[in-house]
Design brief:
The complex is a heterodimer of chains A (109) and B (180).
Chain A (H helix, E strand, L loop, with lengths): L8 H13 L5 H12 L5 H13 L3 E9 L5 E8 L1 H18 L9
Antiparallel strand pairs in A: 1-2
Chain B lengths: L1 H12 L2 H22 L1 H25 L2 H29 L11 H20 L4 H22 L4 H24 L1
Helix pairs in contact in B: 1-2, 1-3, 2-3, 4-5, 4-6, 5-7, 6-7
Classes of the chains: A alpha+beta (109), B mainly alpha (180).
Chain lengths: 109, 180
């Protein structure tokens, strides 16, 4: 990811979910992780479209596992955070922290 | 029935390879929700997921450039052959005194249909997955109807046959390729 390009809000959430889930990061688990932690009921299609975009940017890598009966005999695509993904997360966190520093929400009009 | 319809809907909306993963994830979560909260809640959840997932999945397909291929297959599979046949019969008619116009003999329309089906079958053969064959079939039907509308007055039966036969031939071509 070029320097200065930060993550979109949903991309940020998806990337954080992939980082939290480790080896168990696939579409359905990512969707559930976001839903359980933020209360946001994301559509599985939005999660996959975002994961695809992140893979295109080189922020996540993916691997395909064997089909299982509980998935109706369909294979599973798991995602792993790459070095560039970790760096993008760090930079976005720094940007957010810098923007938040000194802000007092009680004073908002 | 709902699960089957949703699966087909998502298989059509998602890009070729990705469709299987999306539907697998949906089926896995659907069975978990059905066990935790009951089948009725699971069905509601499934329908909501299907409706809300279509737009982002189609958006991802457009961004990946897959839709350009679908559009090209649609043009080559229906619009171009229909237009070229129309121009050919127009030229033939122009060579006969007092016979210029858009009215066609039945055998000419039959030739049009045969050429259309052959091109649509080739478009179907160019697809690798069920979802891309479905996308090309929709594009072929849409472009065929636009072309027929541009050409002008045609017998209703001919229009009906063209709009049914072209997408059906695309799907048949795609199916035949997957079987091989």
């Amino acid at each position: 990811m070029p320097k200065g390009e930060t993550l979109g809000e949903f991309e940020h959430l998806v990337l954080l979910a992939v980082a939290r889930l480790g080896d168990d990061a696939y579409g359905m688990r990512v969707r559930r992780e976001i839903s359980e932690r933020t209360g946001r009921d994301a559509a599985i299609g939005a999660v996959y479209a975002t994961l695809e975009r992140l893979a295109g940017k080189g922020l996540v890598a993916s691997s395909v596992s064997e089909p299982t009966p509980e998935r109706g005999g369909r294979a599973k695509r798991s995602f792993q955070l790459t070095g560039a993904g970790l760096e993008a997360l760090r930079r976005t966190q720094q940007d957010l922290a810098a923007m938040m520093r000194g802000l007092k929400f009680g004073e908002a009009r | 029935m709902i699960a089957w319809t949703v699966s087909r809907w998502l298989l059509a909306a998602a890009a070729g390879d990705e469709a299987e993963f999306v539907v697998g994830d949906i089926e896995e979560e659907w069975s978990e929700i059905a066990a935790e909260r009951g089948k009725w809640m699971a069905k509601r959840w499934l329908l909501a997921q299907a409706l809300r997932s279509a737009a982002p999945l189609l958006g991802a397909r457009v961004r990946s450039g897959e839709m350009t291929g679908v559009l090209i297959a649609g043009v080559l599979g229906s619009a171009l052959p229909l237009w070229l046949c129309h121009r050919l019969w127009q030229f033939v008619a122009s060579q006969i005194p007092f016979k210029d116009g858009t009215e066609r003999e039945a055998w000419q329309l039959a030739v049009n249909l045969m050429v259309l089906c052959a091109c649509a079958a080739l478009a179907g053969l160019s697809t690798r997955t069920r979802s891309s064959a479905a996308a090309v079939a929709v594009a072929v039907a849409a472009l065929a109807s636009s072309t027929l509308w541009l050409i002008g007055a045609q017998p209703a039966l001919y229009i009906f046959l063209a709009l049914v036969a072209a997408p059906a031939t695309v799907l048949a071509g795609g199916h035949w390729r997957r079987l091989r």
